[in-house]
Structure formats: C-alpha cells, structure tokens
Design a protein that fits this description.
By secondary structure, the protein is mainly alpha-helical. About 60% of the residues lie in helices and about 5% in strands. It has a three-stranded mixed sheet with strand order 1-2-3. The radius of gyration is 29 Å and the shape is elongated.
C-alpha cells in the first residue's frame, strides 16, 4: 500500500473541516443594540444572495498565497517521505527477488528491516499530515474571517436580506447572514408560552455569599 503523504488531497481535507460563522462577524461589526426590548419581527421583501464561501476564501489572492507558502514549507518533508517510501519499495523488491536457496536468517532480517522502515514511514507521514492540515486550518481561518466580513458588508450595502452558503459541508449552517428584523425566534417562544399554559419558572434565588471565617 502506498503510504506516502499526498499533499494535494490534504488541502481539500484540511479546508473541509473549517467553517466560518459569518453571522457572528456581522454582529460584531454592527452597532450595539440598545438595552430596550427588541421590536417585533417584521416581514420584508426577500432578496437572497448565495456564495460558495470556502471556494471564495481559497480563490482570493491572499488565500492562494497562503496555500502556496504552506506547500513550499512542506516540500522538504514531502521529499524526505518520498525517499523513505522508495527505500521501503526497494527492500520489498529485494525480498521478492531472494532465491529459494537464501537462508531463513537472511530473509527474516530483510523482513524485519522492511517492517521497521515501513512503520517509521507511516509515523512520519501521519505526523506530517497532521501538521500540514493544522497549518492549512490556521491559514484558512485567518483569511476566512476577513472574507466573511467583506461578504456581509457587500450584502448589507446591496440590500440583500439573506446570505446562503452553497457548496459547503453538509453539517455546516448554510445561513451565513440574515436581516435581524426577520428573526421570529423570541416571538415563537412567547406565542408558545401563551398556548401551552405552562407558567414561567420562578426566578433563581441569589447565590449566598461565601462565609469568611473569623480572623
């Protein structure tokens, strides 16, 4: 089995595990809401925008530069792993080419060498893969935060009410941003409380202050 580290596929795997909460970025950029009760949600004409967010992050100039820098950083490690893999393949060919008259000790020694080097190759490849993907995640996250803020500003400036992510991971939230005035969460809670007949729980008693021992 080929145990060499495949950097190209690691890029896709690394980026796939990182998603951005653009809604949080929008809330951080927006002015603080007053302490007074929020107004009732209002229906508004929908204007929906979609973005392939992960692809957009990687396609930016900064994203491409970050990926190129990481790939360059790991070129020596990839070359070393490729060399280890070639050495293991050579030993396997030597073992396969041993004549039937070869001693059991000679064959056993060659098999031990193959096993030792193969385990070292797998360990080094796994370590490099983990480190490589971690670097990709960090780089992606830094660029994604800035791209996310730009995307939110764009939809706000152009009058969109909802921004959906397309082409992302199935487990990721497809809604990246929405107009807060359309959020009916609290209104639904209030309405259900009316029809359920369940009284609100009593307020929690204040936690007593810790008693300090006399000095």
């Amino acid at each position: 089995m080929n145990r060499t580290l495949v950097f190209a596929t690691a890029l896709a795997a690394g980026l796939a595990t990182s998603t951005l909460s653009v809604q949080a970025a929008a809330q951080a950029a927006a002015p603080a809401a007053p302490a007074a009760a929020a107004p009732a949600p209002q229906p508004i004409p929908a204007k929906v925008a979609v973005v392939a967010f992960e692809q957009a992050v990687v396609a930016t100039n900064e994203g491409q530069r970050a990926v190129a820098e990481i790939q360059k950083k790991y070129e020596p490690k990839k070359a070393a792993i490729d060399s280890q893999a070639a050495e293991v393949d050579t030993l396997k060919k030597q073992e396969a080419a041993l004549p039937a008259t070869a001693s059991d000790d000679a064959r056993a020694k060659l098999l031990r060498d193959i096993d030792t080097k193969e385990k070292a190759l797998q360990r080094d490849a796994d370590d490099a893969q983990t480190s490589y993907q971690s670097d990709l995640q960090d780089a992606y996250g830094k660029v994604a935060q800035k791209v996310g803020a730009t995307a939110v500003k764009y939809v706000q400036d152009h009058g969109f009410t909802l921004l959906l992510n397309v082409g992302g991971q199935p487990q990721a939230d497809p809604v990246l941003w929405f107009d807060q005035t359309t959020d009916i969460t609290q209104a639904v809670i209030n309405e259900y409380n009316k029809v359920s007949g369940v009284a609100a729980p009593p307020p929690s008693a204040p936690t007593p202050a810790a008693h300090k021992p006399a000095q």
